[in-house]
Amino acid sequence: MYRALTERLADWGIVAVLWAFRIAVILIVVVGSVLTLVKGTYTRDQWIDLAIFGLSQGGIYALIALGYTMVYGVLRMINFAHGEIFMSGAFAGYFLATALNRAGTLNANPVLALATVTVFAMAVSAGVALLVERVAYRPLRQAPRLVPLISAIGASFFLQYTVRGLFGPGVYAYPDILALQGEWIIFGVGILKRQVVIIIAAVIMMLILYTFVMRTKIGKAVRAVSEDREVAQLMGISVDRAIVVTFALGAAMAGAAGVLYAQIFRQVNFFMGFVPGIKAFTAAVLGGIGNVPGAMLGGLFLGLVESVGPSLFLDGLGIVAPYQLKDAIAFTMLVLVLIFRPSGILGERLVTKRA
Amino acid sequence: MNRKFLILGGLVGAALVLGACAAPAYECTDAIGCVDIAPGDPVHIAYWGVLSGADASLGEDSKRGVEIAIDDRGGEVLGHPVLLTTEDGLCTPEGGATAATKLASDTTLVALIGSSCSDETVGGIASITAAGLTTVSPSNTRPALSAQDRGPDYDGYLRTAHSDAFQGKAVAEFAYNELGARTAATIHDGSSYAQALQQVFADEFAALGGTITSQEAVSKGDTDMRPVLTKIATDSPDVLYYPIFIAEGGFMTAQAAEVSGLEDTTRIGSDGMFSADYVTGAGPAVEGTYLSSPDFSLFPDLYADFKTKHEAKYGGTLLSIFHAHAYDATNMVLTAIEKVAVQDEDGTLHIGRKALRDAIYATQNFPGATGSLTCSPFGDCGAPVIAVYQVVSSDPASWDPGVNPLKVFP
Amino acid sequence: MLDGGRQEPMTTREIRLDIVRAVRIGLLGGIVFLYLTLVGLVGAFSERPLISGFISLGQTLLLLSMLGVGYVTARLLGNPSAKSAAPQGRAIFMSSLAGFISGGILAMLVIIGQRIDVRDVFVNATTELYQILTFGRGLPGVWLLPIVSGVAAGISAAASRLPGKIRSPIVWGLASVAFFGLFSSLFRTILTGISPGLSPFARLFFAPGEGLTPGGAAVFLIFAAGAAASRRLGGQTRVAKAIRSKVAANPRLRWLGYALLVLVALLLPQVSGPFLSQVLALVGLYVLMGLGLNITLGFAGLFDLGFVAFFAIGAYTMGLLTSYGPQGLVHISFWVAAPIAMLVAMLGGLFLGMPVLGIRGDYLAIATLGFGEIARIVVGSDFLAPWLGGSQGIIGIQKPCVGRLGPFVAEGVPRDCFGLELVGPQSMYYVVVAGVVVAALVAWRLREGRLGRAWMGIREDEDVAEALGVNLVGTKLLAYSLGAGFAGLSGGIFAVLVGSIFDSSMQLFVSINVVALLIVGGMGSLPGVFVGSLFLIGLPELLREFSEYRLLFYGLALIVMMQAKPEGLWPSATVRRELHAGEEPTAMSEAGANPA
Question: What is the CATH architecture of A43-305?
């Protein structure tokens, strides 16, 4: 009888704690927001500014998240080394851009130059990703969950320090594309040209990826493998090829993200992939891991919350230096989603099919 | 298996007997102990600092200063070659503690140059002092390390770098008196260096009569500074002081130009960003911004000499700004060794540890590449003159401390 | 194409295939050479002599790679048992070819590098590097590289064909030279630590600074080769096998062995000096955390990637309770504060475990990772700085005192200790050992008991376990909080070991380290925690001079380990059975087998 009683109590305790969590979060969010808005420290334009900053940063997260989500969908594996793939693309782009800059083509033909740099970065990222897949992941496909994860962590460190060894530990600046300086006024709001380019590029990339996964034969193969690997194999689909394609695509997205990132922040460094990697992973989970539009949505949402959140929620509550806590906000959101809606905003499939 | 153990045991036994029989010829009267260096053996000094991870350029930069100082003397002192080994402190207190214990247990060590990060010193100085070693840091700037109440653990610690207590004060005076600023905001990056420095600035600025509108913080590795800048812009401060490092500093400067509301805010950075890499990272927006740093104009010609040697050995890029301080620290130490070492008849060098420590503390008007060095009883050897520089051109190739950036104060 | 023993004359087709293979390996080898050089390993290692005045570690690295190329080619070209000269000669020739090509690729780097300065891209492509690569001769000496490489590869291929009796001593001899050369300063420190009079003796073998003396190298070479040869030639293997089986059979002998091990462990800090004690103390702290995670992850299968949060809770609790600095809330002794820190951490485990009870698998990993990061950010934030010190941390943590602790005098003034104050790693080591022993005992007893079985049931299949009457909620929460408790204890001891804590010590890397050491050591296995910790924490600390490349090797080690021995270095019996199901029993008892 005791056991039944304690079990009941424990269950109620859990429910109570979870409710306490919900209420605490809602309180912080609502009360904080109200207080901030009442205090009126920020003008409407500034809120819009914050939102746009968040969206452009979110676009980058979204692009990186695409890679995570696709690999997870197909392999059920968290590719810890994905942040370093992003970094490889950024570095590759840096070298080419510097060379083009020295030759003068960077500013003479900005569109062509940027496109070339992006394609090059995507190719390099894909190459690196395929190498990692071949060496660190493929031999471990039959192993229990944790083993490829550790291997991925190992690959992540290895890549970071390889780049550091080869190219040095410093921070290197991307040459500036003069055509992208300044801002455009859209609907009465000033947005940096760079940010527009990023958001547009991210959307285009995502559309390309989406079309590819939905319409092409290889895309269908990838989806099939992500649904049920054994059946797909029985149907004659080459699992190895599907996996390779997945990695290549995801890596290409990350490489493009690297170039775009460098456009806004104009710096590369061997360590730059670590934090965006974790953030992008958070974004992928937020949107529903395995889900391509979800990754996009999750990325944008994460960027938005990071940018607007500290000012909106925490400033009103009188918390000092709220932007120091922006990562904590992002992770709290992640944990909440995982507790209350683990399949993410849009759910778990690579693409949700209607039929 | 048995045979192996017997032989090994025999060898160990023989060694112990031999060791017990060995009698020293020189009587060491030093309060702590002596280092005995046989003829032909090297004088062993070590450099400890941050050699891996994101801040590696700081430690690497200082290490180069040490190496150049040793090269200057032909790689030897008093007829013995100088052996330089390095230890990585990882820029964390436990990293510093482990590095320090490793160094402390090496009885062949004579003196140390280091650490790079103040955190490392906090973690490791107790072991170093306890082992009788003395270390001179080229880049620790935390005020507490040479404060009057630093405690006996720090007896073996000196530094040629300035204390941030001076840097924060200088910037506050510059902002209040020269720029006429009455409101200021600060941003730090969560590192103890930046947080302490901006706090000194804030306290001094308030003491002068100014108002601090907000003290914000970002995290290391952050790239998008615009939200926090927007928050600061709501108060439109006259001055924004962000004593952070190259990467984040570059972002901050570049993006502050893009945030509305900060057009009239003067941007000031600190010595953590004093490098051509910062100019490249910050882009065109860097023109007109200020940086605080040790006053290079007071560096005598020795510094120009040093730069030439650095160029020849490592190529043009200077990784950080404390190389000259490391150079001076090494020279101070080697000079002190020359002063206190005793050579006996068979050519063995004996260096008393306490004597060495006292000799380093007694350094007065020592001609260094960073100025004339005199050590205080609490370990401050650096010339505490801080200057504020203004970046004139955003072309990183034109980086030349004194010209671009130009010294504007005092 | 590879047929056993068929004594056919070499057909051109076979030769061509062999050449293709050799070229391919040569190219691959060349890429490896380029990598080692451009990443800076060769350059950095060249500063460090292996045998003083004779060969540097960098040269050794290149040499090993060349030998490797030869060995791989010889192996791949097959037929190691063929006695006829033709295949042997062909294999050696092919290996030399491969070596030559690899060396040639590296030589091309030097040639190109003299024309174009690639330092802008590859920071290590300096003139000094080229000097090293050309053995000090500069461009005229560049042809040496492929020649030396080819010869080395050929020698290695020939050596691989030698019978084990000859090969084994050579390999053991060289390996021991490499080993003692690598850890030379460590051994020298140990010897001088045992007695200062041993210093001249140590100097015979270990050169001042780093590396071996040539005489010392010769001694180690002969010694190890001799030992290996005697082992092979004599019937020693049988004796060793007999001893081992007897020990395995008689539990009392095994206990004696363990007791001996414990004795050595206890005496270690006295002989090994403060540095080794510090390393061992750090290893011990990770063992303590590993034991905790072993309960959460190893026994109960709950993937916690945010373990550092509990470490932080324990450390900060200890700091707040015992510090005489500005952050100290109360001032109590370490012996009272440690259990409190453990308790608070357990509560933390409970608190953080409750919300995530329903989450499974990888999602749990991410959620806990989130917690770990939130903990780190919050603890170092300006927001909580008035209490937790922010980025300035908590300083002035009182050292443990065996005896009576004097009263708190003033802020910044350490309290007096009337008794034995445990300052320094050599004494703190024992505190760590005590904590580890307690934790190990608890973990061991629990595993054998009902709770342990309940945990393993949850790990295998939650739903089935629930159906069998296991209270999921309570059992899981117990796993979390016990694991957290150990981590908290570890954090508390860490705080007094270092004397101050900063948020920079609470990185994600710590959590990753603990998970990795658990997996590398063997999940669910208690001895595995020790082994994993020694390997992943102890080894990098001992090899501190290569700290720039520390994480490079760390990453490589993880990748290699997962493919070579995924069940861990000392796996629990169940896991080994699972992972090798269906395999023939390997010659694992073949002690003294060929190590090469």
Answer: Orthogonal Bundle (1.10)
